Amino acid sequence: MRIIVIGSAAGGGFPQWNCRCPTCRLAWAGDPRVSARTQSSLAVSADGRSWILVNASPDLRQQILATPALHPRDGSRHSPIRAVVLTNGDVDHVAGLLTLRERQSFALHASPSLHAMLDADPVFAVLDRGLVTRHAMELGRPSAVEGLSVTPFAVPGKVPLFLESGEVALGTETDMTVGLDIRAGDRRAVHVPGCAAVTPALLDRIRGADLLLFDGTTYTDDEMPRLGLSEKTAARMGHVAMGGPGGSLAALAGAEVGAKVYLHINNTNPALVEGSAERGAVEAAGWRVAHDGMEFAL
């Protein structure tokens, strides 16, 4: 199994187009300690020829251009992208579907609730149903996708921002926010780009994975309010922070997995800065910080 991180940042990318937080200021200034990142997505293949996208970010066209494995190869029209699998309905994970509207066949795999969300928005009708087949993925049930076995499982989360109304249920486990268990033979990767808490059920689910790709949105829970950028904490946004007593560094310290990689990293996260105390703490705990173009062969 080959995995390419084609996008490693959270919504808005890094640097975010309108942001001058401390980390974005470094990026705008060309500081070599930081590198630009597009919004979170993976490309995964069992054979190196047919690829599935895990989430479709608004930066998808740029990501395809930057990834030779995803370039067209045959005839006048072709794409090695054979399927897209969604983990939630956030804009940074579904807007890229609109980039794939030029009458190219592929399979769209998502939970029943995510399919219903897309079906309720007429803009996604540009994906011709005669070419883009819809496949419902049930929690806990493996689906065969281009030579891979993909099993969605519920993780604590919330509905997408644009569906929030009134009091928002936080940390609920439904098919609106899922992780993916991806297998090829006896090799296994677990992908959890959005997660509000590390629970015993999640620890059981990831146990034994060769690779864990996990939500690294913010370093501290109060990162955004402290910088004066938002009133929302990481928890309010549906993400567990890296640091702190309830953070993922502590909660996953004893996780029985192989390589551990943070992705879906917010532009405010100081772990983006090479040589920072936060990056040092992440690396000392055995984690890597994902960057665009990072590859894994399992």
Automatic annotation (TrEMBL):
Keywords: PQQ biosynthesis, Transport. GO terms for biological process: pyrroloquinoline quinone biosynthetic process. Residues 51-265 form the Metallo-beta-lactamase domain. Gene3D superfamilies: Ribonuclease Z/Hydroxyacylglutathione hydrolase-like (3.60.15.10). InterPro entries: Metallo-B-lactamas, PQQ_synth_PqqB, RibonucZ/Hydroxyglut_hydro. Pathway: Cofactor biosynthesis; pyrroloquinoline quinone biosynthesis. It comes from the Bacteria. Belongs to the PqqB family. NCBIfam families: PQQ_syn_pqqB. HAMAP family: PQQ_syn_PqqB. May be involved in the transport of PQQ or its precursor to the periplasm. This is Coenzyme PQQ synthesis protein B. It comes from Lichenibacterium minor. The gene is pqqB.
